[in-house]
Amino acid sequence: MAEKANLSVIPSVDSVLAEPGIRAMYEFCDQALVARFVREEIDAARQSALSDGTVVESKDSLVERITRRVCLRVARLTEPGLKRVVNATGIVLHTNLGRAPLADAAARAVAGIASGYSNLEADLEFGRRGSRTALVEELLCVLTGAEAAAVVNNNAAAVLLTLNTLCLGREALVSRGELIEIGDSFRIPDIMERSGAVLVEIGTTNRTHLRDYEAALTDRTGLMLAVHPSNYKVMGFTASVSLPELVALGHRRGVAVVHDLGGGALVDMGEFGLPHEPLVSDSVAAGADVVTFSADKVLGGPQAGILVGNADAVRKIRRNPLMRALRSGKLTYAALAATLRLFLNRKDLLRTHPALRMLTEPVSALKRRGRRGRGGRGGVGPPAGGGGGGGLGGGTG
Hints:
Radius of gyration: 27 Å
Largest sheet: 7 strands, mixed
Order of helices and strands: HHHHHEEHEHEHEHEHEHEEHHHHHH
Shape: elongated
Distance between the termini: 59 Å
Strand content: 5-15%
Strand order of the largest sheet: 3-9-8-7-6-4-5
């Protein structure tokens, strides 16, 4: 028969609150909050005693354990959860490590805007309400050749909003070879379903032809979606339809074409000796109605999703009620505008753009830095389950 629980060793709340270690926590938290944590720990000890039938520790050791647990809880709450780390993974744009580090100019822009008021939606020239998109639209149009632009909180949101605006209740044609899965098991078909678009799969995994799209076009078709498979390659016996071919078909049949680039480069990466990445300007020049891409990958800015394209399509997207739910805030706009301005002076990009600088750094420099850092702070390796997406990173997120 189990021994009766010895509840006499359970301390009172007041006695624990009198402990020097607990009193020291008042510097970091309200006394009432510390008292709440103490009560919760005492209740947990009491419930444990009742369920186990015995309390094997002394009152002093129980008070010490409660004090230690309360202090740890206060520390967890009051210390920043988001910390700077050393990226020793070999992946410059690592999703789990926050993707692109901001340029100095972008960090200064965020700091300058964060502590005061700003003209986020105020037209200072005419003294009336303005549009936050106007803060970056001209920059995006100059750099991509697009007629109009919009910004949301990530590229998955950009795809969702575009589909919901242009294809709600209608069919969206997508090649089976482009039905990608991005980080944390999010998939293009799932995003499409939530958008209200009806997915129509075209072709096969390895071969899709223009005739496959032509055969699938009906009066229910809302758009054709091309997705850049930035995280993988299908090799061997393959066939795919180029964006210009898809756009030409769309124009003939009156169907919009959307290109989800994922990464979205603004400059030719080959100029820096890097592997080819599709240019946003090429997709715009090819005639895609809307092009979506991330701001925090090769662009090197803050987390955001960017939409560029023809004025009519982008205007419809900006008027969608979901735009308010998915829009970005002032700090994102400050960092994004500062990052975009770097691309106006391409000759200095390797000096001003941290991600490009790291991607082009010679191996010898990395080895020297590794030797200097050996024995210092530890690096962070790829966590279980991945999350890096290769040297550049990729995906729709």
